[in-house]
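Sample entry follows:

_____
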Amino acid sequence: MPIGTAFHDRTFTLCESLNYREWSGYYAVSAYETHHQHEYNAIRNSVALIDVSPLFKYRITGHDATRLVDRVVTRDMRKVSVGQVIYTPWCDERGKVIDDGTVSRLGKNTYRWTAADPNLRWFHQNAQGMDVQIRDISEKVAALALQGPMSGRLLQTIVEGADIANLKYFHVTKGTISGVRVDISRTGYTGDLGYELWMPWKEGVRVWDRLMTAGRIFDIHAAGMLALDVVRIEAGLLLIDIDFNSSKKAMTEAQKYSPFELGLGRLVHLDKSRFVGQDALIREQKEGHSREIAGIEVDWPSVERLYDELGLPASIPAVASRVAVPMYKNGIQIGKATSTTWSPTLKKLIALATLKRDYAKPGTIVEMEITVEAVRHRVPATVVKTPFFNPKRKTGMNSGSDG
């Protein structure tokens, strides 16, 4: 049975819909109201507060901490400075992705590592013979994502001891909010300007209350998983167990993905020191891979015509779909769309899809299966680059700006 996070007393009071889901053993709000529209709009137009405490969190310290991280992840940790955060996958011996997450370098040999799935055993297995300490701090550190164009301005009004205005994208700093020591990273899962706040579990409510009180003038809203699902698809961000499978949980070889297949080849530094899966990934780079995850824009007028022929208004799902549907080219199935949503910002039906590599090139015209009144149809769609939505404010230097 799920339990509440550090912020459950606050989120439960706000959750009028009582629409919850389980996330890594915790209650997570799906939507606070009967529809997630206001929460989505807060992320894209003002500021939203999202409880992301169920993430698995690890603290890596000791003389060989950097050596361990470098052995596990695909990126070169020698190029990561103190105060920097990286997004990275890590692989098994065959070069298949186990998980992905962020690694924050808090000190010369101090790291905070976040993951979607439990990874403690894997880290220990790769730390054999090293002078390193690995602590699971998942239940000790609470986490909040403050996302949206007003998030920087809000933080500047309440954070003491940190230069929020000049905090660079994918960097981390320290400060205090209502006397609570907080790590603040300019990161998030929304593809917008945003920050993630890390604090002691038992003091989290004080930070939540300060953010919500000070955030009123910025039209702050608590946001749940349904709104987050829409914005992460707009941002082209992948979700484990939906868009790809961990190699540790995959039932078949086809369910396992390499970083290259996920479109993360830029994060694989094959010339760095030895890391898990390196040999397999070197071979794959030479021999190529057969599929890739790509962005899809569905031809909406074609969908409208299907409904019009039945005398019905065009209908779109209220929530993002996590149900895989077939993709075709010339009558032959070439892959599957795994995450599909209507983008309120872009006014487009978009999807993330695994396609045979020959058809994953941007500009390729394919077909996507659409079901209308229990009848399956195929409508044209175009392969596009991701992210679908990528505002300048996300990475701009003045993090307090609104555009």
